[in-house]
Amino acid sequence: MDADLTRRQLLRGSAAGVGLAVTAGLATPAAAAPLGEYDVVVVGSGAAGMTAALTAAKRGLSVVVLEKAPTFGGSAARSGAGIWIPNNQVLLAAGVPDTPAKAAQYLAAVVGPGVPAARQEAFLRNGPAMIAFVMANSPLRFRFMEGYSDYYPELPGGLPNGRSIEPDQFDGNLLGAELANLNPPYLATPPGLVVFSADYKWLNLALVNAKGAAVAAECLARGTAAALAGQKPLTMGQSLAAGLRVGLQRGGVPVLLNTPLVDLNVENGAVTGVLTPTGLVRARRGVIVGSGGFEHNAAMRAQYQRQPIGTDWTVGAKENTGDGHRAGQRAGAALDLMDDAWWGPAIPTPGDPYFCLAERTLPGGLIVNQAGQRFVNEAAPYSDVVHTMYDKNPTAPDIPAWLIVDQNYRNRYLFRDIAPLLPFPDAWYAAGAVFKASTVQGLATQIGVPSAALKSTVDRFNGFARSGTDPEFRRGASVYDHYYTDPSVTPNSCLAPLWAAPYYALRLVPGDLGTKGGMRTDARARVLRPDGSVIRGLYAAGNASAAVMGHSYAGAGSTIGPAMTFGYIAANDV
Ligand SMILES: Cc1cc2nc3c(=O)[nH]c(=O)nc-3n(C[C@H](O)[C@H](O)[C@H](O)COP(=O)(O)OP(=O)(O)OC[C@H]3O[C@@H](n4cnc5c(N)ncnc54)[C@H](O)[C@@H]3O)c2cc1C
Known about the structure:
Elements: H1 3-12, E1 34-43, H2 47-58, E2 63-66, H3 74-78, E3 83-84, H4 89-93, H5 100-111, H6 117-137, E4 142-144, E5 164-167, E6 170-171, H7 200-203, H8 210-228, E7 233-234, H9 236-250, E8 255-256, E9 263-267, E10 270-276, E11 279-289, H10 298-304, H11 323-330, E12 335-336, E13 341-347, E14 354-355, E15 365-368, H12 382-392, E16 401-406, H13 407-412, H14 426-430, E17 434-437, H15 440-447, H16 451-467, E18 503-515, E19 518-519, E20 526-528, E21 534-540, H17 560-573
Parallel strand pairs: 1-2, 1-11, 2-8, 11-21
Antiparallel strand pairs: 3-5, 4-5, 6-7, 9-10, 10-11, 12-19, 13-14, 13-18, 15-16, 16-18, 17-18, 20-21
Helix pairs in contact: 2-9, 2-17, 5-6, 6-17, 15-16
The protein binds flavin-adenine dinucleotide (FAD).
């Protein structure tokens, strides 16, 4: 179904009476033409929005998805699409020893008492049902990300082998012409390869590890097989968004691109529709807001988040500017967790920043602050590393911090998409994202860090690496720390000495995958006012709502798993 067709369908939609009581937003709201009427209006075509729309449609409700961007999929399409849903059927079929009791114990331990137990329970109960529903009502299939540990596997109920799944390979031909409207990935896979998120761990090691080489060969074999079969293979977020979109196509749900929510329509205290620049779309039963985070809204970031912050370090979809948050607020919604985000250290490379996952964890690297001192376990969950950066920055400046590596590290491991042995791009040097020197002291001078301090930090770190114990930050003490490491390095696969010149320093800033604060919701995904009362007709899911993860991050996929689940819950409630 193409965008033109769906727009024509919308314009034909049954026009509701006018008599608008618009809260705010449009310059001339009274002039807004009624554009159509549906049972459910969904805002945003990301993980939350498309799952909600699919669910509502399968209940037999009439549904439309309004999407601001000229493409569909949002950050979800850009993402690695890890999905953290305990006890789902894919995990259980793979033999993961999960139980509802273990999952409840773990989630409660991770998120703490700040997240109402009823919301935690709703997520854990509905998550497996959501996965089963998506598999039954779309061509999406999923695979277990074996070994991708929960982020705190030592907490009660934590699983060191993980609870994350990701979409299976998907043939883009199933989308027909709509494939051209799929939001592109954050990092394109090299042509001819079919790569899953779970492959990255091994591709980093392809030069130094037999399994790494075998996984690289497997990626090539998948790519070759797909080409011979005439397929357009999609994986990760591309597969997730395309698969959900095919589900919507089959369910006859229009997705209107270039059609932003400008405001919510409120009548007698209830939300009854969405105002767009071209008019009002009425919702008989309710509006489900899945408009993503506010990562690209500089004013909101400055208002709610710690400094320094801006919009240059996020990798989230650029249309995510908190429109749903602001419209929700105008309708009376409370906002929570606005200071937080799905953080991770990023290298401010030209163009998109690079969200640095494996590179800060692999042996042969350490992170220092501006005094040349380590300040964090480099292999800790990415969100925690940035929380620590912000906590410590006022007294011991670490924004930017520096990832220090040596040539031995560069000879062994992939760095982003730069093969081992190859130089970092000139543009990175020109942008000040990377520096190089023949000695540690020379490197310190280049980055403005005291040279004696950096030399002494590296020497001390090298001693830890030889002994295999990091008494300062316990790097390698958690099973999670070892996910992105090199198993051939002993006695601690996270730690190797830096000894081979030249040495490199990569600038690290607080990046994010998107923000996690938003409208306060209850266990039914209904939006709440500050006094706890429900705003009738208004639901929120995904990054437009305050995360069920609270200030934490349970495992790989802790944003998409809950986004899809609360989209599903909202659409079953509406
Ligand atoms: C590179 C990258 C990798 C990631 N990897 C993972 C991962 O492996 N696992 C994981 O769990 N998370 C991951 N994330 C995070 C994850 O993608 C997001 O947190 C998730 O997609 C949020 O879902 P959402 O539906 O709330 O928002 P999105 O998926 O961003 O969708 C929001 C949609 O709303 C639209 N929109 C915005 N404003 C309006 C408006 N006014 N009107 C109409 N539409 C609007 C946007 O254009 C967008 O299409 C990653 C993110 C990135 C960028």
